[in-house]
């Protein structure tokens, strides 16, 4: 019995020492992504620049009149294995972030300017809506549909933090109208007018 405890203690010490010795795992993007993440870059090839992301700037607005600059593991390899990532958002006056969801990540919005509505809908269809201004922090639980809407007189901006180094995203409009599913089927399953569906499919480069 004493031998068993000794071996257990030895293995625990070995495992703990190994974990402590690995201070970081900079993603080797050339190694290929896997369900377990990217492999680690060799420590001998790591420099201080691997721990810096230098492109966290306002981007060009998209068709919804907002810009989003991601700092995910694919862009910032130092995030590999850490379980979080960032984004920078700017919504032009009258712009909106469409209804979407992140199936694998909670989102935290840190408002840095302007006035905009943040909203999410729970699985039992309860709506939580809040008007955010500079200094507010708003949490959107993982997997729930949510959107943002600028209601101010100027631009609105924020920093978002995700509980995943590479969060997924599914935008409802693109999921419905940016595909090749037959418009008649979409009409029957959503009660939308088929003619309007075809117009939206043309807008979102869908077909059918």
Describe this structure in words.
Residues 1-21 form the signal peptide. Residues 56-198 form the Cupin type-1 domain. Mn(2+) binds at residues 100, 102, 107, 146. It is found in: Secreted, Extracellular space, Apoplast. This protein has 208 residues and is an alpha+beta fold. The protein has three domains: 2-48, no CATH class; 54-168, Jelly Rolls (Sandwich), CATH 2.60.120.10; 169-208, no CATH class. Helices cover 21% and strands 27% of the residues. It has four helices and ten strands. The strands form two sheets. The chain has a five-stranded antiparallel beta sheet, with no helix packed on it. Helix 3 packs across helix 4 (194-203). The longest helix has 20 residues, at 2-21. The radius of gyration is 22 Å and the shape is globular. The chain starts with a helix and ends in a 5-residue tail after the last helix. The model is unreliable at 3-21 (pLDDT under 50).
């Amino acid at each position: 019995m004493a031998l068993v405890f000794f071996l257990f203690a030895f293995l625990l010490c070995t495992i703990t020492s190994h974990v402590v010795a690995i201070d970081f795992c900079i993603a080797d993007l050339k190694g290929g992504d896997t369900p377990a993440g990217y492999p680690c870059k060799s420590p001998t090839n790591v420099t201080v620049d691997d721990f810096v992301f230098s492109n966290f700037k306002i981007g060009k607005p998209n068709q919804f009149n907002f810009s989003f600059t991601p700092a995910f593991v694919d862009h910032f390899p130092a995030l590999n294995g850490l379980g979080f990532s960032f984004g920078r958002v700017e919504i032009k006056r009258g712009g909106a972030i469409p209804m979407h969801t992140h199936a694998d990540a909670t989102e935290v919005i840190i408002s840095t300017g302007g006035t905009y509505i943040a909203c999410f809908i729970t699985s039992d269809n309860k709506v939580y809506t809040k008007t955010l201004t500079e200094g507010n922090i708003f949490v959107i639980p993982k997997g729930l549909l949510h959107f943002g809407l600028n209601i101010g007189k100027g631009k609105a901006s924020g920093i978002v933090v995700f509980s995943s180094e590479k969060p997924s995203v599914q935008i409802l409009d693109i999921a419905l109208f940016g595909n090749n599913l037959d418009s008649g089927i979409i009409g029957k399953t959503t009660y939308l007018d088929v003619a309007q569906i075809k117009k939206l499919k043309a807008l979102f480069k869908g077909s059918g």
